[in-house]
Amino acid sequence: MDVRNFVKAVASLFGNDPHEQRQGRNHLRRSDSRPRNSVRRHLASVVPDRENPDRAGQEIADDSAKDDPVRNEPVKDEPVRDENTRFDDALSLLVKGRQSLLAGSLEIIGLDDVRTALGERWTLFKDVVIRLTQAELRRSLGPSDTFRKHGDASFLIHFGRLDKGAAEERARHVANQVRTSLIKTIPEFAQSISVRPFVAVIDPDEIDQSETGLADALFARLARMRSDVVADLQRRRRSLNQHTTVLFAPVWSVKKELALLHHCRANTQRSSQISALWQELVDPEEAASIVAEIDYLVFAKSLETLHRLRRHSRAALLLIPVDLRTVLSGATRREYIRLLGALPSSYRKYIMLEVCRVGADVRTSEIYDVIKKLEPHIKGVVVQLPLDDKRVTEIAASGVWGLSTSLADVDVLDRSSADPLQRFATADGVDGVKTIACGANSIGLTAAALNAGFAFVEGSAIGPAAKEPRLEFRLRAQSLALAHVRSY
Fold this sequence. Notes:
Elements: H1 3-13, H2 18-22, H3 36-45, H4 53-65, H5 69-72, H6 77-96, E1 101-109, H7 111-118, H8 122-140, E2 146-150, E3 154-158, H9 164-185, E4 194-202, H10 214-237, H11 240-243, E5 246-253, E6 258-266, H12 269-281, H13 284-311, E7 318-323, H14 324-328, H15 330-341, E8 351-356, H16 364-374, E9 380-384, H17 392-396, E10 402-406, H18 418-425, E11 434-438, H19 443-452, E12 456-458, H20 477-487
Parallel strand pairs: 6-7, 7-8, 8-9, 9-10, 10-11, 11-12
Antiparallel strand pairs: 1-3, 1-4, 2-3, 5-6, 5-12
Helix pairs in contact: 1-13, 1-15, 3-7, 4-8, 8-9, 10-12, 12-13, 18-19, 19-20
């Protein structure tokens, strides 16, 4: 699905000629692929000593080893041999007994770029990555699970006593723990490395050992099964446009006691499931492409509704979510801004963007850059942050229109939650910044947001999402207060 189709759809709403929109523009790729040269420059920048590569490589290894008990232990080959033997024996018994096995693979993605950047220093770095991964696997897997290294950057896992759902959950946990450990130990490569799990039930008759060993045959079978799943996802991805609708949740102004904003939400479990699976099974650049595609869809469909309302003099202020990865850099940011560029100036006062999923590893300067790029095209930018995010003050002081957070993890019975709620609600003392509490799905959560001082509240306790913004929506704060008292 090409973003140019979205641009045409948006432009056609306002009578713009899509051919004029394309003048002077190069063809844009759909996937957000970070340029390899840029990646290499980034990686090379953390290895300053080019004159003495051996010494510089040793510096990386030494720095990574600080305060790490796994790295400071002497190298022991015996545990590795034992692990390989346990894995091979378990696999051999199941195959000989014609029993199905629950197996998985764990692949470390992105090491090729690191290898290119480090050159001769690659060997030291690779040893760090492999030993960290092995240590995390030993910590995270159960006593009946076995694993072994396969190739330069992959591991095979056999799950002894789990069902498929539990095995997938454990594989995701292991992958997250491995990546967290790698980032903590070698933060310079956080943007370059990802860890990809895959789990499947294997019929032993489908493991072809005719020309290779048992472990190699298992890895090949897992690779083929993963490829089949990705192909199925691609087919389902093509139907996203037909199955995606947008609902509008009222965002209630505490001061005005009416809905001044309307939160646009994709009403499709299908798209979220495809997005989650896509991110687990494919390279990060491809995963970013499906996230961006859903963002394009939500934007275009929200605009269709706004255009229809405006024709009947019922325009509403929309808050449209967009994943940070889509607008952070690369082709997807250019394409999203191209979508914004298709808007007539008279529509921009009705559009606000909520930048979502801002990870802890994203630098504040990067968030500033995103705000600066988006603001000229719309009324304002809202940045979504976790309730306890330490960057609240910095981002609030950047000139952003507002900050939003989720109340999903707030325990209204826990009095200690009042302080972080109040700190976020007041933007940590920064004047002029609007704060939005999302997910107020109970009277108790709504009352907690009101007491903390949030300017806007959104959730099912305020009002359900609908196919169109409810412009007449009003709610008295006194009514909520009374309902809260009655609930006790």
